[in-house]
């Protein structure tokens, strides 16, 4: 496969469903788009292809580092930025019983 056809995807992966905090969630990943279609192996029934780059995932601390790696290796790349999420306003348990509260009960 020639280098000029390889398209890399640079993105920040979302947190897993088991992760509630923000630790270890700021990294960036460079992965490659598949260069050829998968085909079914007649003997085993598994799908596969000869494209080994689609198995490669490189992790970087910053977006700029991932872009610098792609530029240094002559890769075309697309950067995908996730939409911002609303900040959660911390509340105390005592807010539920505050005098003059106008909101409805949530439970």
Automatic annotation (TrEMBL):
Predominant localisation class: membrane
Domain of life per record: Bacteria
Species this protein is from: Teichococcus vastitatis
Matching InterPro entries: NADH_UbQ_FeS_4_mit-like (IPR006885), NDUFS4-like_sf (IPR038532)
Protein localization: Membrane
Keywords: Electron transport, Membrane, Respiratory chain, Transit peptide, Transport
Protein name from the UniProt record: ETC complex I subunit
Start and end residues of each stretch annotated as Disordered: 1-23
This protein's record includes keyword S-adenosyl-L-methionine: no
Keyword Magnesium annotated: no
